[in-house]
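Quick start: read one record
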Amino acid sequence: MTDQPRTAIHIIPTPSQVVPTSQGCVLGPGAQVLASPAVTRLAEELLSPSTGRADDMAAEAATLRFSLIDEPELGDEGYRLRINGQNVSIHAQTEQGHVWALQTLRQLASCTAVPAGSAPRTLPGVAVTDVPRLPWRGVLVDVARWYQPLSFLLGMVDRLAMHKFNVLHLHLTDDQGWRFEVSRYPRLAEIGGFRAESSSGHLDEGRFDGTRHGGYYTQKELRILVSYAAARGVQVMPELDLPGHMQAAVSAYPGLGNRPDVQLKVRAAWGISPHILNTRDTTLDFMRHVLDELVDVFPFDYIHLGGDEIPLDEWRSSTEARQRVNDEGLNGAAALASWWITTMGRHLQEHGRKFAAWDDQLEVGLPREALIFAWQSAARVGYALARGHEVVAVPEQFVYLDRAETDSPREPTAIDGPLPLSQVYDYEPVPAGAEGRVLGSQGMLWAEYLPRPSLVDWRAFPRLTAIAERCWSGGGRKREYMAALPHHLLRLTSMGVRYNTLAATSGERKSV
């Protein structure tokens, strides 16, 4: 048992309320965790080496008690945490709340980069009440442009969970690669998962690296990811981007395309392929079968169906596509994209699932039950709301983290920029009067220029901390957030996260 520490509490995202208690405690190797088996296992992992199993208890060891209570104001994810002497009590309505309380304990126990195996850490005496502002707090990770091993994705889940993000949006397919094993159609991964070379530098430079690249995830690997993420409070939403961004699929099965007599290769250049899915019934059935396997691996309520950036030239010149327009009573080739999304969305509904899509199809129209990811501008959030949709706000000007954080010449190659931390933090995702209809926001890590995990970290952090703060805590705690950030960067360092250091040297972060 220890006296109340005088140091401030530096937690990101900032808890809703923190009140000091009379005494803190030492979280040593004899600490006992009284919780469900799942929460106990996670506590042993997250708080090790500070805690140990029950059979390692010392006589004066702290006890962590996790209880489920009926307290509606906490919602599904909120919690109460109280540290007062040897007793650490955690109350929540669900185990999800217990999981987030553990992440808070993890941060309280690691305010500096303490080496593994060091002396037990002291927890400050505090009472925390914490409830998230928004229910959807996500991060998109693009593994279609550059395949990354499963270990990378597991590490990303750990990073997300520490910041109380609850959705990993996994962009699995694109023109440059197909990463999902489909048992019924093995060539999708075996052929579509590999390209002969990749763009080197910016797309308009026309340079290539001459190196074959590829890989894909087996369904067994993805089930491991889903299970690992779920234990940490993170759901995985897969994205199968259609009917555009499909050159990798068409290269594996030419009959999916509008020129089945032409053998395409997996696209090596960045940018958007003109080659899109045809409108045949057999192609619809093919994608239904793919979705059947996808929903069997990913239990999350939502499947993202893409629907963005669809060149129309192939459809406009296709007799079959024009006939489909007539048969379905559509208003031209542009309506075929919405028709594709709607048709696949209905199939997902037969599985008891919901579907999401990018905002590109709003003008043509999508069923109101489609969850819209508004990416083209902040104004698209309001437009989607006006069309009757629920929305996840992801305007590229504020949350596309593939943009460089600074304008320093030392920044690695990026698609655009700068997008400083201050601009990310200042974005308000929920327009006035839209509470409950804008579900949340995401950080977007498109990967054309992120071939290595270290570059993903560099682009993601510290800007993801600002998105976590706005989604969980809102925007009224800037001073606390900025005070916590230097301490939090030490935590990231202890985790091996190679965050962007250029803004710190330029002084930009001091003015957030």
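Residues 1-7, 50-59, 112-117 have pLDDT under 50 and may be disordered.
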